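Quick note —
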Amino acid sequence: MLDIVVPIKQVPDLVEELEIDPSGTALGLERTRFVVNELDDHALEQALLLKEKHQAQVSVIALDVGDVEETLFMALAKGVDQAIKISGDFGPAPDNHTTARVLKDVLGGLSHNLILTGVQAIDDLDGQLGILLSSYLDLPYVGLVSGVQIDEGGSKATVLKELPGGVKAELELPLPAVLGIQAAEQPPRYVPVSRVRQAMRTATIEERSAAAEGNGHIRVRRISKPQVGAGAELLEGSSEDIAEQIVGILADRGILR
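Predicted structure written out below.
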């Protein structure tokens, strides 16, 4: 049987304004709303598509950061077979080095032929989790994947990798492997709130603990909000008047001569 594991991450909801904590080196997370990382949601969707095609077993794992239980129940409502919450002393916002080491320990106790991660997370844009996991587990890795096909024997995968300029490469690699998903073959499926609530009543989230080895490799020196500019200047008048004003502004700034 094909066993697929999808690590997912909770990230701050960018719809709301983010605050910086008093230290100046981290986000203030006390009133922050968390959502599942968008590309991790694509990785989950790709796993569910493979499950439907190959009768695969899909497990979702997540560090206990943010509203992780809500996200895990949502994954169960979508059709995953196992959801695991990992608790440990890894802080409210562990970097990818710490996360990869924690996941490595948990993955050691899970059967897996394929690990699908989002290619990066919106809160750090680091893009290293899949690469680090493949290194720790001594598995092949391909990132920026937008399509996955598994052979009937479950021994190899053929993937589409996105390259610059709209070009795609077709690569073949042996399983087990780690893939960084850029986009699933279809948009992530919607799950009704009623099904999530049903999963909360009937399904179970498994809890495991893992030790964070060290404090990671990334140290944030300072976080600051973007500087606010002078704002927009509204130009009024007819089209001809506005055109003349634009030409005058460009000339004053030395753009036109």
